[in-house]
Amino acid sequence: MTLRNNDRGALLLLLAASALMLLLGLGSRELWGAETRWANIALQMMQSGDYFDPYLKGDPYYDKPLLSYWLITATAWLTGSLDHWSLRLSSVVSAWLSVWLVYLLGEQLFRKGTGLIAGWMLATTFYFVFWARVATADILTVCGVLAAVWWYWRGPDDTRFSRYLVFCVLLSLTSLFKGLIGFILPGLVLLPHLLSEGRWKRHLNLRLLGALVIAGAFYMTPFLLSHLYGAPNYGESGLGLVLRENVVRFFQPFDNIGPIYTYLLYLPIYTLPWAPCWIIALWVAAKNWKHIEPDTRWLIQGLGLLMLFFTASGSRRSYYVLPLVPFAQLLGAWWITRRMAARNAESPFGGRGLKIGFAVTTVLLLGILGVLYPWTNSGGGAIRFGETVRLQASQRAPLSQWHFVMVEVDNKVPMYLQTGGEPFYYVPETRDFPRDGDAAAMFEWLERTSGKHWDPKRTIFVAQYRTGEPVPLSRLGQDHQVITTTPTRGEQVFHGREDQSVAYLPQGS
């Protein structure tokens, strides 16, 4: 697709605004929700040098394929540290590429200007930008699905081996982020187009089979490396978890069980503020079904199959609906450009009202996610706590010389990022460690259970607890410096902090 100068300028503005919304204040918000798992696993990989066996709090945890963790560790290697910024950067880049891919799809399949409008709609969708700034595999999956669909539409009737190979490798790559939905979701989206006019018949050939075999080998490579080079006593199978997470959970869910109407409720919410556009588009398309463009019918049918698939799964959570969001916004953009064409609007961007709408939502997102969230997280909290612990420790000895003992209390264990030392030693609350925190008893217990010597002058104990509850290991405060979490600005203004952290540094070291 060749862009004229004004089209190129409009695209660059979209991509620049998207980058600003995604990056502003990215490293200033504390870890949230599932981010702690990705941070914990990536940290233990970097500390131990074992990149094939994911551990969570010291225990085997092969919940997701390895690629999303590898992206984080690679980013940390490039930036020089594992921090909030490097944790989230792979999700941000994926979201930015997703905006670009939606633009390309819209411009390729529909009227001129549809892709630009769809790109702005996606880039200014609150929950899309919110999850794009979270260190999980969900936005990576969205990007992979869009990349596979875009590649298919570059030549839907092309049967060359190279075309098949790139498409199938994209499916494998996407599946290595979160699971086999990387194969399933693009297939469902494209199925209506493949079935129309018997198109699937021309793609049923040995070249496709060969590409699938190569892509299958590509998909299996991380699992094979994990088997060959991982710890022999690891105790969990990556492929076993694939079966459990993608097949067993679909038919016999064991967690995340939501009502059957979950996605009917959350798709409109997750496409705000532009949800009315795709809802109206559905109504308009239904009224004019026989007369609308074939590509529009494909888009609606593909979106419908995605909705049916997620609804059929017994395991349902609100953010599972994220892969539907770009296609819903594409549909909304189709209706807008159709309406503009009927009114003989000249601007390919969408008219003055739409420009104002995109400008306002951009400013709001920048203000909320880029300024307000970082401000409410500043002045204290886990980020400042971690900085204080590292600063106090480094003033006495290089961080690489310190040993960290992370003690779990009430199923909570704090997560602090890279120190340069050896792997953190995790103490689950199920263990029989001295609960009162007597220093001599703690070190005697550590040496007895871990089988190694612990230097009392180079060991830091860290624990997390709820506000108002007794401080864990409090007797360590008799001969250790005590560092606790201070409230962030947001907590000072709105409410107290629910989770507190405490660190005990040896005095006089």
UniProtKB/TrEMBL annotation:
TM ranges: 85-105, 126-152, 164-192, 204-225, 263-286, 298-314, 320-336, 356-375
Subcellular location: Cell membrane
GO annotation, biological process: lipopolysaccharide biosynthetic process; response to iron(III) ion
Protein name, entry field: Dolichyl-phosphate-mannose--protein mannosyltransferase
Chain ranges of the Glycosyltransferase RgtA/B/C/D-like domain: 63-218
Presence of keyword Protein transport: no
Organism domain of life: Bacteria
Entry's Gene Ontology molecular function annotations: pentosyltransferase activity
Entries under Pfam families matching the protein: PMT_2
InterPro entries listed in its UniProt record: LipidA_mod_glycosyltrf_83, RgtA/B/C-like
Main location (coarse class): membrane
Record's bilayer topology term: Multi-pass membrane protein
Entry keyword set: Cell membrane, Glycosyltransferase, Membrane, Transferase, Transmembrane, Transmembrane helix
Listed GO CC annotations: plasma membrane
